[in-house]
Amino acid sequence: MGADLFGSLAESTCAALVVSSTCIPMIYHSDAIYFPLVITSVGVLVSFITQWFAKMKMTVDAKLFYQLVISTILMTVMIIPAVFMLPEYEMIFKFGGKTYIAT
């Protein structure tokens, strides 16, 4: 992986971690804070699987097209279980110095 791609991946993962750690509903559900790391790790696994399809006997543009389609399908299927890490909808109210959580 090139330095530019790795830098972009690391920066976007760190930014997502910062945003998820400052989101009030996610602080109450500590498992959800790791959601950006789960997405990144699933993406790495999908990229390892998709690279094997580069050895197909076809033209370059067909290989790239099939790799894009396969990686999109695999990433979509593998992210579905990770979505259940997220908390259910919550609304937090601050009124008169007190915090109310409506689930």
Total count of strands: 2
Put simply, the count of helices is: 4
Helix and strand pattern: HHHHEE
Gyration radius over CA: 19 Å
Q: Give the overall form.
A: elongated
Percentage of helical residues? 55-70%
Classify the secondary structure makeup into a structural class: mainly alpha
Give an overview of the whole structure:
The chain contains 4 helices and 2 strands. It has 103 residues and is mainly α. The protein has one domain. A hairpin with a 2-residue loop joins strand 1 and strand 2. The termini are far apart. The relative contact order is 0.12.
Features:
10% strand, 2 strands, single chain, mainly alpha
Task: Give a quick precis of the structure.
It is built from four helices and two strands, in the order H-H-H-H-E-E. With 103 residues, the protein is mainly alpha-helical.
Q: Which secondary structure elements does this structure contain, and how are they paired or packed?
A:
Blueprint: H1 3-22, H2 24-28, H3 35-51, H4 60-83, E1 91-95, E2 98-102
Helix pairs in contact: 1-3, 3-4
